[in-house]
Amino acid sequence: MLTKLKKKVLAGEKITKEEAIKLVELEESRTMELLAAANQIKNQFIGKKVDLCSIVNAKSGSCSEDCTFCAQSIHYDTGVSSYDLLDRKDILARAKEIGDSGAEHFGIVTSGRGVVSDQEFEQILETMKTIKEETELEVCASLGTLDQKRVEKLSGIGLKRYNHNLETSKSHFPEVCTTHSYEDRVKTVRFLKDRDIEVCCGGIIGLGEDFADRVELAFTLRELDVDSVPINILNPVAGTPVEDNESVPPREVLKTAAIFRFTLPNKVIKLCGGREDNLRDLQSLSLLSGINGLLTGNYLTTEGRAVEEDIQMIHDLGLTEE
């Protein structure tokens, strides 16, 4: 069955949800075969390039939403630092540092359901223009939900890519967030696609979902035709409702990535937050299991790996950074 589904995908055909579930049900002893098959699919559709991006937490904390995993929510006492939107010069300095280290994409991320004031939004637009003028980086952003007017403004300055995660399946979403709906998130994705802005959209595993939820998410992303799919692995934060969730075993993380590759053969699929703690010594194996992108450097409220370390890992595997 595995060989049959691999040949199907390599021939340009789409697998069904039922077939994806069959991949989930493969016995543990065949996990490495699954990973190798996903790598073969990745090599055919993507090649050896690894997409590297890094972010800056440009506005931290005080988020009105109650997402169970989030250290920045006002609903939980996590001790995270809160601050207003960073000055343009501070964001530019971080961008130049990232550019010098070798990353290709640089994302400006703000906490909250959306950038509240028009003044903040215009300030971010001007910052993006400056980064484009003074660096070689592709500028990306994650500013929460958007209306059509703001999407048009982002398109007007040549925004490369926008991140807006669905986080989990529609079925499981009510267990993750109650202050906004799944449809709110999907609407923003559709606005962006309508303006031909690349959409970076994925989720977090380890939120209490099952594998069927992960498959459902993957197929929703395929239906929306997103361009880049970040897979985060829960790194539980004390004070949040999921602080006692068990960590996702490394082989399960890799299996999840492989099934996403079978479902989304020609998309960027990247490992992001939580990869260091959850994959540990198997991080390099992810790049041979269907993954072709990494969020590198520090995350929003936790430390990550140095860009130079990730680039060395990429080169050691005979791959190239994009």
Show the helix and strand layout.
Blueprint: H1 2-10, H2 17-24, H3 31-45, E1 49-59, H4 88-101, E2 105-110, H5 118-134, E3 138-142, H6 148-156, E4 161-163, H7 182-194, E5 198-200, E6 203-205, H8 211-224, E7 228-233, H9 250-263, E8 268-271, H10 275-279, H11 283-286, E9 293-295, H12 307-316, E10 320-321
Parallel strand pairs: 1-2, 1-9, 1-10, 2-3, 3-4, 4-5, 6-7, 7-8, 8-9
Helix pairs in contact: 1-3, 2-8, 3-9, 4-5, 8-9
Short synopsis of the structure:
With 322 residues, the protein is α/β, with parallel strands linked by helices. It has helices at residues 2-10, 17-24, 31-45, 88-101, 118-134, 148-156, 182-194, 211-224, 250-263, 275-279, 283-286, 307-316; strands at residues 49-59, 105-110, 138-142, 161-163, 198-200, 203-205, 228-233, 268-271, 293-295, 320-321. Strands 1, 2, 3, 4, 5, 6, 7, 8, 9 and 10 form a ten-stranded parallel sheet that branches.
